[in-house]
Amino acid sequence: MKIWVFALIFYFAFCARIEALKFHKTQQTERISGSAGDVLEDDPVGRLKVFVYELPSKYNKKILQKDPRCLTHMFAAEIYMHRFLLSSPVRTLNPEEADWFYTPVYTTCDLTPNGLPLPFKSPRMMRSAIQLISSNWPYWNRTEGADHFFIVPHDFGACFHYQEEKAIERGILKLLQRATLVQTFGQRNHDCLKDGSITIPPYAPPQKMQTHLIPPSTPRSIFVYFRGLFYDVGNDPEGGYYARGARASVWENFKNNPLFDISTEHPTTYYEDMQRAVFCLCPLGWAPWSPRLVEAVIFGCIPVIIADDIVLPFADAIPWEDIGVFVAEKDVPKLDTILTSIPIEEILRKQRLLANPSMKQAMLFPQPAQSRDAFHQILNGLARKLPHDKSVYLKPGEKILNWTAGPVGDLKPW
Amino acid sequence: MGSLERSKKKVQLWKKAIVHFMLCFVMGFFTGFAPTGKSLLFSNGVAISNHSSEFSPQPAEVLNPEKTQNFTSRELEETAISTAPEESRDAENLKNPKEETINNGELNPRRLVIIVTPTSKTDRLRGVLLRRLANTLKLVAQPLLWIVVEQFSDSVEVSEILRNTGIMYRHVVFKENFTDIHAEMDHQRNLALNHIEHHRLSGIVHFASLLNVYDLSFFQEIRAIEAFGTWPIAKLYANKKKVIIEGPVCDSSEVIGWHLKKMENLTDTSTATTFPIHISSFAFNSSILWDPERWGRTSSAQRTSQNALKFVKKEVLEEDTKLKGIPQEGCSKVLLWNLHILKS
Amino acid sequence: MKQLTALQHQARRSNSFRGASLPLDTSADGAIKSPATIFWLALHGLCCLISLVLGFRFSRLVFFLFFCTSSPSATINLYTALQTRLPSSITTSPPAANGTAVAVDGRSRVVVGRHGILIRPWPHPDPAEVMKAHQIIERVQREQRVQYGFKSPRTVIAITPTYVRTFQTLHLTGVMHSLMNVPYNVVWIVVEAGGTTNETAALISKSGLKTVHIGFNARMPILWEDRHKMESQMRVHALRVVREKKLDGIVVFADESNMHSMELFDEIQNVEWIGAVSVGILPHSGGSEGVELSAVSREDNDKNQNSEMPVQGPACNSSNQLVGWHTFNMLPFMERSARYVGDRAVVLPRKLEWAGFILNSRLVWKDVEDKPAWVKDLDVVGREGEDIESPMSFLEDPSAVEPLGSCGRKIMLWWLRVEARADSKFPARWIIDPPLDVTVPAKHTPWPDAPPELPTSVVKVISIPENTEKRVAKRSTRKRS
């Protein structure tokens, strides 16, 4: 008898704990709403000063020369941000007055013939760059990187591995533990997302999108639109790993629904089609984000975000809950019910918000930069972190970083 | 002796323990065995650590089999509720389509109509006629899906026309080159059918030529088709005296005979020889494409998806018991005109 | 570790288990006796719980194996998942040696590994939801029109001359569908040659538009030249109705030979007094028996169709001011242009088709103060039955015409004149009555797939007198075998 009592007690204890946890969760996901739109309008000039380290060109320009495709792929933000900062009014040539220090290293610009980045060398390259700046300037050692920021737009940020398991195993490069990371990757409670990181949109070619714009009066005649992989047969032959099964589920449940214009084929009218769709699916792929998010916002198609615990770009400035629809991965089979039961007024409101040009501007890295664009939003994000907490400045002789931590391979010279 | 007794007692104790373990195991087994639509299966895998209450709020659902079960059964109920009325509605839909009129019926579910339109880039009138057909289709009660097929080209003409219509459409593009216009048209129709098959779209499929003009009630009528439907089609010839009406002769909605084109004409065109019925004078339930067993046909494996059109034509010809005359009152009203203006 | 051993024991012994159920209370009795037994009891309880959890996981495994197409790695994953889900004290036990590493880091809830692909058991799409979705789309489109369309659109007054003939239904239906799609108020004035007929009335009543159906007291002549003239008179006749009823809006001449793009009806909202749009001319010989398209249009076939299509309409200078007119070049067709209806030659448009002009209806009103001075009064224009070639005849100053549609660069309306021979017959209201004869009985395969052996003459040339419009659509259900 007692055993059963025991068991029951255990049982209820579990239940109770679970309830408590759930409560926590809902509280956590609630975002501070309000002045979001205004934040987008902020002008970072005058609010911060950035010192750009002068690095040998082998850390950036030479890498780019080897493979110009780096300028067009999804992680090109690291290159454009560098170019932008060099000519930006927030740049300072006097490191003494700088609020932030920027080290221009192009860590994702190492592409396979298919154009996928394989960041095997990135840790060594990054380590080498940090070694360089810490020995040539005094500023790194002052805080061990707490007032430095790095742009690491790779899938798993500064974990520097293309496979998620390996990336998690590695964790964020130990030398970057105190620095602020600007990254595309945004998965809450993930080993590769550090607290205080700035999540940015992936790079989408602004000119190309511009040329495909059609009049906003074009009637929206697609209910749900998606183009992309459902199964990544090459890398995930069994299915269920890729997109945590969510994309496969979209296909299996909705391929026979005429309202779901979903396919793996990318038509030439892809951008135009997004502009005549009401909802655009943005399910996770291998990483939780996808360039569709940017495309959906630019093209005024309500993004349906299917990626549990995603951290969205500039989430502190863009009211994602207001412009998008969030569907839990486990609710994918109910997607049709969820979408058709959204009140029409809410849909129209989301569309109106999406039509707001400042929302679109914040998603793009235009050349040359324009006010309120993604570059400025990154700077705004950095400015909002100022002033640095006094505690980040180390006492003389104090050392926190362990330069020899991490896999042996990463410690080899680059 | 004492040791023997002790060991015996120990064995007993073990047995008892095993019984308990087994019981617990079985209990757990059944607790978890409720089939879930949700896959809590592996999706929420979580590691719990000592300070999890602060940092890791989500493991919740996993560790609570009882909750899972509740959830599941609730969902199953929902399922049952959602399926039952749907089926009955479907059945109603089949029986009295006449009850739904085009304009009323806010949430009155209707059958999906799938219109397949092949286009040829050699057709000078393509753009104009696409617009005209679009104007008609835009007026048809939803749901309607328009599949327009086109050979790949740099021209955005067709895309542009289509996207300004506001109709729900699929634009299918192909790369092959054809010299024979009829072969090309058939290829295009096949592509559309493959699309329907691949997506397992369920609805009534009709091949609409760009030279067709429809009375709007036509689309309402074909929604009543269960398997196959056919109707008279009027062919109008420019600058000629004759008007040809082709199609079924019906008693009520039962097809009792046929009117046909002249045999000489059949040898003219390659399509006609294989399929003397006008391509626009029949419609069929799309499930024949992806679920032929349901219609008592051999499985789809036997036919090549290369030529779904051929399969459909064959089915239409063989299944005259399932063939329904449209409009239902004796198929005596012409609702579809086909303009003969160009040579092709 | 202990638990694991216990589990192993359990596994090993379960085979030899004989099903003897021991009384539970003996153990309970013994339990109180010593701290050792209490410890054992606690352990026992813990093991029970573990079995429970194991059982739960096992059932899921079984479920998974049965319902998802599984593979060996799935099971591996299952165990990984299983392991991580045990209470924290156990996570230290080490079977994490398999390939898929799981973050046991504490704050991460992200599971790297295989997830189930959720496929719902209930059928879909739900028809009710499909309708809801369509309502959403419709509403979104309406909202787009509100937002990007004209704020205070004027009524569109469409004028269509017609008469009962073989091609009437085909043509008039096309025009009707265009007008039905116009998102603004529409008044459709249908002028019928030879007086109004029920046939036409029945057809246009399907539109659901506000229609004015008026007769014109003359039969349609057979020569194209005379036809054009008469159609002009019919349009003027309709304009008199506009004048009398003081219809306010924009007048378009929607001919049966026209095909419209919907943008036209937006564009014409811009007109102030009189506007002109470009009309794409689609000349054809209607040749279905060897009479090919004329040389010019055959060339069109090879090139880009649109750029080569003859266009009628306003011509502008660089600052979008009217400088002249693109007229249809008739020269290539002069030798073989159709003179009468049914002539197998190219039917030509007039120099400038009426359809290319858009009028502010106030232009034909009798007394309007702000009417511009360069407009002739309607009564002055059409008086002596003279031919009004185009609305330009209303103007003292032809330069007053406002070019619309990016001045001829954008074609929003086409002209295609197709008719049957004048003596062509068709069943009244297109109701086949008496029913057609059966040429092939249904039961024995309507179409032969073997060598065709059909009666040679199976063409049904319907020879039912034209204009028997009084006949009611009665259908005989004669039984035939």
Automatic annotation (TrEMBL), chain A:
Pfam families: Exostosin_GT47. It comes from the Eukaryota. Residues 47-342 form the Exostosin GT47 domain. Keywords: Glycosyltransferase, Golgi apparatus, Signal, Signal-anchor, Transferase, Transmembrane. One of its GO terms (cellular component) is Golgi membrane. It is found in: Golgi apparatus membrane. Residues 1-20 form the signal peptide. Its main location: Golgi. One of its GO terms (biological process) is plant-type secondary cell wall biogenesis. It is a single-pass type II membrane protein. GO terms for molecular function: 1,4-beta-D-xylan synthase activity; glucuronoxylan glucuronosyltransferase activity. Belongs to the glycosyltransferase 47 family. This is Exostosin GT47 domain-containing protein. It comes from Fraxinus pennsylvanica. The lineage of its organism: Eukaryota, Viridiplantae, Streptophyta, Embryophyta, Tracheophyta.
UniProtKB/TrEMBL annotation, chain B:
GO terms for biological process: cell wall organization; glucuronoxylan biosynthetic process; plant-type secondary cell wall biogenesis. InterPro entries: Glyco_trans_43 (IPR005027), Nucleotide-diphossugar_trans (IPR029044). It is an enzyme of class 2 (transferase). It is a single-pass type II membrane protein. The chain crosses the membrane at residues 17-34. Pfam families: Glyco_transf_43. GO terms for cellular component: Golgi membrane. Its EC number is 2.4.-.-. GO terms for molecular function: galactosylgalactosylxylosylprotein 3-beta-glucuronosyltransferase activity; xylosyltransferase activity. It is found in: Golgi apparatus membrane. The keyword Transferase applies. The keyword Ubl conjugation does not apply. The record marks 246 as: Interaction with galactose moiety of substrate glycoprotein. Its main location: Golgi. PANTHER family: BETA-1,4-XYLOSYLTRANSFERASE IRX9, GALACTOSYLGALACTOSYLXYLOSYLPROTEIN 3-BETA-GLUCURONOSYLTRANSFERASE BETA-1,3-GLUCURONYLTRANSFERASE. Belongs to the glycosyltransferase 43 family. This is Glycosyltransferases. It comes from Fraxinus pennsylvanica.
